[in-house]
Amino acid sequence: MINWQPLVELINANESFLITSHCRADCDAIGSELGLALALEALGKRAQIVNGDEVPEHITFMDPEGRVQELDHVPLETLRQHQVFIVVDTSAWGQLGPMADVLRGFAGERAVIDHHVSEDDFNAQVFKDSNAEATGRLILELIEELGVELTPEMAAPLFAAIATDTGWFRFSSVKEPAFKALAKLVAAGASPPDTFSKLYEQHSLARLHLRGRILDHVKSECDGRLMWTYVSRQDFQETGAQITDTEDAINMQLTVAGTEAAALFVELEPEVTKISLRARGDFDVRAIAAQFGGGGHRAAAGITYQGPREEAQTAVLDALRAGME
Ligand SMILES: [Mn+2]
């Protein structure tokens, strides 16, 4: 449990707040920023949200008022005028992008609200619970500590934050506090079906057709322990789908019983292949990715391979097969 009192005092003692989160923002980042900014404004404070890059297209629905600004479009002087700088959903300099320099040069008070284990020194007061399933739930706790009444405008983005950071309530991080928080957010106006639809039911027909190709190309090896598939440039051309339409496609291979590792080879250019790797159980795909200059986590890693797709497939599949022995 976080002791919020120092942050409540910091907020009560100041009038003007700058809020940021990590680049390539997700729903937890945006939801936490918006929930916090709206709560501060409910107290009569000023809040400005500025990120190092733009809000990803597929989650712009979370910010109907366009409150989240991109650093490129904001005069630097306006940022220095704030009294307190609050970073949410990250504690890593490397994830702040160009906002890292703004934080380094910031003269006022600093605070971090986060649930990630890693912790760089931001020279800030840290409000962290690494057992929390989402920063959005921590923001809700803070809102309650501040005595601010939850509005539908706060509840909707905070609901999306918790829903997505928990894989829609199925990760091992999901405990009773998550459902208690969700109940409060729904009571305040958050709509689970509306959120789900805006996140996952707005895709193009081309994306569905591309998915059909990806499924059609699936191969199974090593007695079903290794699954792999690919997308060629021809697949993109013929379906009209975009590179971003390959997102999440790899996870479909993990739905087959007995799969331990999965690979997706995406032909970006004739000589550039993007490779996504996933693992279930003990298999470590980060170790495979590292052999080709890639990186990631044990269960999810990626490689940008400088070479034709067939060559990438031969090389990386050989490494995967060797890892299965
Ligand atoms: Mn998060």
TrEMBL record:
InterPro entries annotated for this entry? DDH_dom, DHH_sf, DHHA1_dom, Oligoribo/pAp-PDE_c-di-AMP_PDE
Domain DHHA1, chain residue ranges per copy: 249-321
The first-level EC class reads: hydrolase
Q: Tell me its EC number(s), please.
A: 3.1.-.-
Where does the record locate the signal sequence feature? none
Has UniProt tagged this entry with the keyword Hydrolase? yes
Q: Which domain of life is it from?
A: Bacteria
Please provide an example of a Pfam family that matches this protein in its UniProt record.
DHH
**Gene3D superfamilies in the record:** 3.10.310.30, inorganic pyrophosphatase (n-terminal core)
Name of this protein: NanoRNase/pAp phosphatase
Species name: Adhaeretor mobilis
